[in-house]
Amino acid sequence: MYAITGITGKVGGALAEELLAAGKAVRAVVRDRSKAAIWVERGCEVAVANMEDAGSLASAFAGAEAVFILPPSEFDPKPGYPEARRVIDAVVAALAASRPAKVVCLSTIGADAPHDNLLTQRTLMEAAFSVLFTPVTFLRPGWFIENAQWDLVSARDEGVIRSLLFPLDKRFPMVATQDVGRAAARLMQEEWSGTRIVELEGPTRVSPNDLAAAFARPLGRDVRAEVIAREQWEALFRAQGSENPGPRIRMLDGFNEGWIEFADAGAHALKGSIGLQQVIDEIVRS
């Protein structure tokens, strides 16, 4: 039995599809049983658990051959990352109690960054998991290409995408969420000992200019990329409702300045098969 948290999202859903196609038994771990109806139809078990509740998580993981941990994302964390720490404490306690045979945990590029930033939440998670005796794989994907969903309206209506990443011709490690799910499925079916780190990016790196060109094709119009100046970020994020934009700003600095990067610039990272244009075409169709 393979227990999957985050199954209602893109990564967890792609992971479940791969495991089911391989004939594996899947347990969907969800907050709300009604959200798992589609997976029940596919023959999955359902376990209801809260990611901050060690008891319900331990029950959900009980008897599992492998567990996939997809921690919730917190884009406006309070100082010290208390939201992430509550989840980490609960998950570690649940895994220690349930003792699955192996664990794959979705981490991120930048989990080893030298400076505090939004992705430090995953740094804390990786460190906390070191107390477990269960074999653990930390899957560190690059920037999700699907984040470009936020650019669709301006690309379609104005012919512009406004980029927080720059220079506009710099290519960043990005990956499709479906490739992340597929990689997680492969890793969960492998055998290993101890802790391992697996980096993952798409078949080619992507610049903001590349994103603009990818939107131009299905939209049938010119699309250009424009930089949002760094000095505007804090006011912009606060206007969007952020109360603590500092970690997000530092994360973007890390990508732009190059201190959030894969080891060896991705030379040894796994490479996905889904390219930029395929993802953008799907975003435009939807």
Structure explained in plain terms:
By secondary structure, this protein is α/β, with parallel strands linked by helices. The protein has a domain at about 1-145 and about 175-205 and about 260-275: 3-Layer(aba) Sandwich (Rossmann fold). It has eleven helices and twelve strands. Strand 4 (about 65-70), helix 4 (about 80-100) and strand 5 (about 100-105) form a beta-alpha-beta unit. Helix 1 (about 10-20) crosses helix 7 (about 175-190), helix 3 crosses helix 4 (about 80-100) and helix 8 (about 210-220) packs across helix 11.
Any guess at the CATH architecture of the domain at 2-144 and 174-203 and 261-274? 3-Layer(aba) Sandwich
**CATH fold naming of the domain at 2-144 and 174-203 and 261-274:** Rossmann fold
SSE topology string: EHEHEHEHEHEEHEEHEHEHHEH
Give average pLDDT, whole number: 97
Q: With helices defined by DSSP (H or I, 4 residues minimum), what is the helix count? A: 11
> What form results from the Cα inertia axes?
globular
Q: What is the terminal separation in angstroms? A: 33 Å
Sheet-strand content, in percent, reads 15-25%
What class, by secondary structure content? alpha/beta
For the biggest β-sheet, the strand order reads 3-2-1-4-5-6-10-12
